[in-house]
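=== RUN LOG ===
request id: a7f3
mode: sequence -> structure
chains: 1
length: 103
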Amino acid sequence: MKPILLALTLSAAFSLQPALAQDGPTLFKSKPCGACHSIDTKLVGPALKEVAAKNAGVAGAQELLAKHIKEGTQGNWGPMPMPANPVTDEEAKILAAWVLTLK
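=== RESULT ===
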């Protein structure tokens, strides 16, 4: 019985991943990201499409972007620092995955 329950639990967890990745735009709108970023145009920070282009094909880009989203960063796009954001690790991963899909 336990292996079946474990298999069902894991199956449910993995089946949620694609749906969560599609929630990137909704999550973006619910967080303070839009105060400094837009999808197409540079505001205080770079346009998200620029971030995606810069990181296209870069190994580990999703993990690095998720870390930058959660913890903040400085010097990647000029002198203006990006502050840490009030997101969970999972939300940061969702946002990073979504940003990397933008073209």
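=== NOTES ===
Residues 5-19 have pLDDT under 50 and may be disordered.
The chain is about 55% helix and 0% strand.
=== END ===
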